Amino acid sequence: MHGTAKDPQNGLSRKIPLRIPSLDIEIGPVGKRGAHFNAVSSDISGAHLWLILMKAYRALSQVDARSIADSGLGISDFAVLEVLLHKGPLPVNTIGRHVMLTSGSITTAVDRLENKQLVRRKASPEDRRVTYVALTRAGNTLIRRIFSVHAERLETLFEPLTLTERSSLGTLLKKIGKHGESLLGEPSTD
């Protein structure tokens, strides 16, 4: 049931998926795991793509939240520790922008983490109005351990995608994200 086509790079014949437009499905070639079916939606409207994105986001964010909850940290505490792990010491307000917390919420989160001796505050030597937050040794050890487990769990979310699909997904999401930011007149936060 599969068609064949010549591969333009090596000239060899290869099986190509069978598309059935009336059913909005595509049947992939039979491999080690058998044939695979892909939904091929004919509705590519912005509203439909938004719905697909939101359904995917909801499912993925629930897996993410469960993984964080299993660590024993709250989401905002995890987010602060994670940004410090990957970005190094940062001013309090910069951390707040990175993790999307208001100034009051980021102050509360940093206070909580400081009380647990996971972070420490330090005045900026260049500008005494600026306070930096850095991981303590205990904080660094904790977030490295927790993030390693969390990253493994997130990896399982994307197991169904090939490396090429992962790359394409990242590129496309960045593209629409930057476009959305441009419509709002906001700078990119990569």
Describe the structure.
The protein is α+β, with helices and mostly antiparallel strands and 190 residues long. Among the domains are: 1-42, no CATH class; 65-151, Arc Repressor Mutant, subunit A. 54% of the residues lie in helices and 15% in strands. It has 6 helices and 8 strands, in the order βββββααβααββαα. It has helices at residues 46-70, 75-87, 92-99, 103-115, 137-157, 163-184; strands spanning 3-6, 13-16, 18-20, 25-27, 37-39, 90-91, 119-123, 131-135. The strands form 3 sheets. A 3-stranded antiparallel beta sheet has the order 3-4-5, with no helix packed on it. The mean pLDDT is 84.
Question: Brief overview, please?
Answer:
With 190 residues, this protein is of the alpha+beta class.
Number of helices, counting only DSSP H or I runs of 4 residues or more = 6
CATH superfamily grouping of the domain at 65-151: Winged helix-like DNA-binding domain superfamily/Winged helix DNA-binding domain
Q: Give the H and E element order.
A: EEEEEHHEHHEEHH
Cα(first) to Cα(last) distance is: 44 Å
Major beta sheet summary: 3 strands, antiparallel
Number of strands: 8
- Quote the beta fraction: 15-25%
Task: Quickly give the structural class.
Answer: alpha+beta
Overall outline: globular
The fold-level CATH name of the domain at 65-151 is: Arc Repressor Mutant, subunit A
Arrangement of strands in the largest sheet: 3-4-5
Mean pLDDT: 84
CATH architecture name of the domain at 65-151: Orthogonal Bundle
